């Protein structure tokens, strides 16, 4: 199903014709790039942002093509069949079959290895990578845990978030009750409004793209809660055979973001952790005034109860190639494994 979202200000010139078997054309908007997207509000928001950026950078019209996946029609099953993996696979299949020209994913939802046949054509500049709290009564994490006779009920199904929030609570001599939750952003925040939960943990980037940042009651410092590898970044993929399209989409690429997420995902891969393992990672740039000096990569892995965390960081020259970014991640993984990280990753909650 196509969704005609092409605004009137698109230059009439269509893109170059003849891009091979997946070439655009024949639809309502000849020459438009077909961007495959899930139908969730967040996916549509992310796809819309990328579509707009492509139009701006290239002048090419872009149309969104909604891909309905098994996971979209069968909510109950989703937790069982592996969460976001099903969505990623459905979008990728649509690209590989030539039904769409490109797809947009949340980078943190992608497996750490790039599949054959698909190119990561662009990693646009990343949004705020932090996790945030949406809590009742405008409370912060500290306020929540200090408030009331019983442990605060905090909604998150993420072992990474649980491990770090539990550790933080322990440090302050309090306890929280982490309550596994699933579902979209509306559902999760709804659990706070209904009083079922005291708070939920979400990614700032998702709320920002949905225009709901004003509902955040606490931005969690990355010194306390390291985000998921790749959190806040988007991945723009196209077929590997379509080098001309990859070159066009490459205009959206932010080399620093790409280097950072490459290092973070390399760490995750080298720890041989699944995408739902309790691994946090964040690479950032260390600057001296305006001059970028180094890239720092921080990592954490822990038990979900927060009793044990292995935290480590490393710095190195800003990577100038994919391999250098990968090496930074591997180096940190080796250090974390030497500190006992492997023993903490037995729990793989899906
Ligand atoms: N796991 C689901 C998911 N995948 C990407 C985002 C948010 C957007 C992002 O991190 O880029 C979310 C929701 C959340 O964690 O709150």
CATH class of the largest domain: Alpha Beta
| Order of strands, widest sheet | 1-3-2-4-11-5
Reported for the largest beta sheet, the result is: 6 strands, mixed
Question: What is the molecular shape?
Answer: globular
Can you write the helix and strand succession as a string? Answer: EEHEHHHEEEHEHEHEHEEHHEEEH
Work out the helicity level.
Answer: 25-40%
CATH architecture of the largest domain: 3-Layer(aba) Sandwich
Low-confidence region ranges: 1-26, 76-82
The helix-and-strand class reads alpha/beta
Strands, total number: 14
Query: What is the CA–CA distance across the termini?
Result: 31 Å
Q: Briefly note the CATH topology name of the largest domain.
A: D-Maltodextrin-Binding Protein, domain 2
Distinct small molecules: the ligand NCc1[nH]cc(CCC(=O)O)c1CC(=O)O
The value of Rg in angstroms is 21 Å
- What is the CATH superfamily classification of the largest domain? Periplasmic binding protein-like II
Strand content: 15-25%
Mean pLDDT comes to 87
Count of helices? 11
- Count of individual domains: 3
Explain what you see.
The protein has helices at residues 41-58, 70-73, 75-81, 85-96, 141-146, 159-171, 185-193, 204-209, 243-249, 255-270, 322-338, and strands spanning 2-3, 33-37, 62-66, 102-106, 118-122, 131-135, 152-155, 176-179, 199-203, 218-219, 234-239, 279-288, 291-302, 309-317. The model is unreliable at 1-26 and 76-82 (pLDDT under 50). Strand 12 (279-288) and strand 13 form a beta hairpin. The protein is built from eleven helices and 14 strands. It has three domains: 2-124 and 233-253, Periplasmic binding protein-like II (D-Maltodextrin-Binding Protein, domain 2); 131-219, D-Maltodextrin-Binding Protein, domain 2, CATH 3.40.190; 259-344, Double Stranded RNA Binding Domain. Helix 10 runs parallel beside helix 11. The strands form three sheets. It has a six-stranded mixed beta sheet, with helices on both faces. The protein has 350 residues and is an alpha/beta fold. It starts with a strand and ends in a 12-residue tail after the last helix. The structure holds ligand PBG. The ligand NCc1[nH]cc(CCC(=O)O)c1CC(=O)O binds at residues 84, 106, 108-109, 202-203, 205-206, 231-232. Ligand PBG binds at residues 84, 106, 108-109, 202-203, 205-206, 231-232. It is an enzyme of class 2 (transferase). Its cofactor is dipyrromethane. It holds the Pfam family Porphobil_deamC. This is Porphobilinogen deaminase. Pathway: Porphyrin-containing compound metabolism; protoporphyrin-IX biosynthesis; coproporphyrinogen-III from 5-aminolevulinate: step 2/4.
């Amino acid at each position: 199903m196509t969704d005609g979202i092409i605004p009137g200000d698109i230059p009439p010139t269509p893109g170059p014709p003849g891009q091979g078997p997946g070439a655009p054309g024949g639809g309502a908007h000849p020459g438009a790039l077909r961007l495959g997207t899930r139908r969730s509000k967040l996916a549509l928001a992310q796809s819309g942002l990328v579509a707009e950026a492509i139009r701006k950078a290239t002048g090419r019209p872009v149309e969104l093509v909604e891909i309905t996946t098994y996971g979209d029609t069968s909510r109950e099953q989703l937790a069982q069949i592996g969460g976001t993996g099903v969505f990623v696979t459905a979008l990728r299949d649509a690209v590989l079959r030539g039904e769409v020209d490109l797809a947009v994913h949340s980078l943190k939802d992608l497996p750490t290895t790039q599949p054959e046949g698909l190119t990561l054509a662009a990693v646009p500049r990343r949004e705020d990578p932090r996790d945030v709290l949406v809590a009742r009564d405008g409370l912060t994490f500290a306020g929540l845990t200090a408030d009331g006779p019983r442990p605060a009920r905090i909604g998150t199904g993420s072992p990474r978030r649980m491990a770090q929030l539990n550790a933080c609570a322990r440090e302050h001599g309090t306890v929280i009750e982490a309550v596994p939750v699933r579902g979209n952003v509306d559902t999760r925040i709804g659990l706070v409004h209904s009083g079922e939960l005291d708070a939920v943990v979400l990614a700032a980037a998702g709320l920002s793209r949905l225009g709901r940042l004003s509902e955040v009651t606490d931005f969690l410092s990355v010194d306390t809660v390291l985000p998921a590898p790749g959190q806040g970044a988007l991945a723009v993929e196209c077929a590997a055979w379509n080098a001309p399209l990859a070159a066009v989409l490459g205009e959206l690429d932010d080399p620093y973001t790409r280097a950072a997420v490459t290092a973070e995902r390399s760490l995750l891969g080298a720890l041989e952790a699944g995408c739902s393992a309790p691994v946090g990672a964040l690479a950032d740039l260390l600057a001296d005034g305006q001059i970028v000096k180094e890239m720092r990569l921080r990592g954490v892995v822990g038990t979900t109860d927060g009793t044990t965390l292995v935290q480590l960081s490393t710095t190195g020259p800003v990577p100038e190639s994919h391999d250098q970014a990968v090496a930074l991640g591997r180096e940190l993984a080796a250090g974390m494994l030497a500190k006992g990280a492997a023993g903490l990753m037995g729990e793989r909650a899906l």
